[in-house]
Amino acid sequence: MDRRIIGGKARAVAPVAPAAPQVRHLLVDESSAGQRLDNYLLRCLKGVPKTHVYRVIRSGEVRVNKGRAAADTRVQAGDDVRVPPLRLPERAPPSVPPREFDLLYEDDWLLAIDKPAGVAVHGGSGVSFGVVEQLRRARPKAPFLELVHRLDRETSGVLLLAKKRSALTALQDQFRARDTGKTYAALVRGDWPDKLKLIDVPLHKFLKPDGERRVRTAAADDPQAKRSITLVRVAQRLAGFTLLDVSIKTGRTHQIRVHLAHAGHPIVGDDKYGDFEFNKSLARGEAVPGQRYDGMFLHARRLAFQHPASGERLELQAPLPAACSALLRHLALPAAAA
């Protein structure tokens, strides 16, 4: 019982129980038309755990226009989405700090930023917030802002976001059809063989016992694996390392990282598929005397695509991060000078 001062006297007052959660009906607006049901709900139901959202969809408790719907159902403007009672967690979600990132391009339809390494593109999987949440917080008047594609948290470089639903749909269609041109800069250990220009090795995504996502190479007849194709070109040879230009014909999770490691040349600083002891030594400044590097050297340096409104072919480029450039300069020095 709480004690409160009423009429000059302290009296016991029974605590008021929080209102029971109620069924809600969401009306889909024009800006959300064409969005997957799961993504639409995750955006509307802030604070509800993702696992709860998928559970009520699977159970049939979420209805679209009174009918059952799957997670990949596309909602349309004017749809009535019935949401069962869901209790929000008592703990307030962490506040998202507003943040702008280095702009590579922006107009009324889209924007492209130079994503720094170490920043997730969106919240989830133990990450409270990412690039898109910080940008939304920094631009509270923006009616729509969604990721067109994704980059690994450890990967830096060109990241594209849509400012209109129609732009998002058009750009994602290009990515699915492989009509975009993406080039990554990757520094690997060892001397990459000139003849190895194509890696066509299936990949299988799985979860470790702790729930962490991982990818491994697989046999061609593995029913759980997907064909994965990576193109590689040597950009620069350095003492004990090779700088590569890498492009992908298929967009599998961790594809570049796993393919390069499978070829015997892991990406420098890769904490999932690389040489862990070497990475620690490099971070301490021992592997390359006089130069420390703590991070993964994988950078989305170029992205080409057609503008969703004008049809103009755009090619955006992001310069190498300062730490990557410093490491390359040091590795290029004559042995005596280094």
Q: What is this structure's SSE topology?
A:
Blueprint: E1 2-6, E2 9-13, E3 24-27, H1 37-44, H2 50-58, E4 63-64, E5 67-68, E6 80-83, E7 103-106, E8 110-115, H3 131-138, E9 146-147, E10 156-162, H4 165-176, E11 181-189, E12 198-200, E13 203-207, E14 213-217, E15 229-238, E16 241-248, H5 255-262, H6 276-283, E17 298-306, E18 313-317, H7 322-332
Parallel strand pairs: 10-17
Antiparallel strand pairs: 1-2, 3-6, 4-5, 4-6, 7-8, 8-10, 9-10, 11-16, 11-17, 12-15, 13-14, 15-16, 17-18
Mind explaining what this structure looks like?
- With 338 residues, this protein is α+β, with helices and mostly antiparallel strands.
- It has three domains: 24-83, Structural Genomics Hypothetical 15.5 Kd Protein In mrcA-pckA Intergenic Region, Chain A (Roll); 103-176, 2-Layer Sandwich (Pseudouridine synthase); 181-332, Pseudouridine synthase (2-Layer Sandwich), CATH 3.30.2350.
- Helix content is 19%, strand content 28%.
- It is built from seven helices and 18 strands.
- It has helices spanning 37-44, 50-58, 131-138, 165-176, 255-262, 276-283, 322-332; strands at 2-6, 9-13, 24-27, 63-64, 67-68, 80-83, 103-106, 110-115, 146-147, 156-162, 181-189, 198-200, 203-207, 213-217, 229-238, 241-248, 298-306, 313-317.
- The strands form four sheets. Strands 7, 8, 9, 10, 11, 12, 15, 16, 17 and 18 form a ten-stranded mixed sheet that branches. The protein has a four-stranded antiparallel sheet with strand order 3-6-4-5, with no helix packed on it.
- It is globular.
- The protein starts with a strand and ends in a 6-residue tail after the last helix.
- The mean pLDDT is 88.
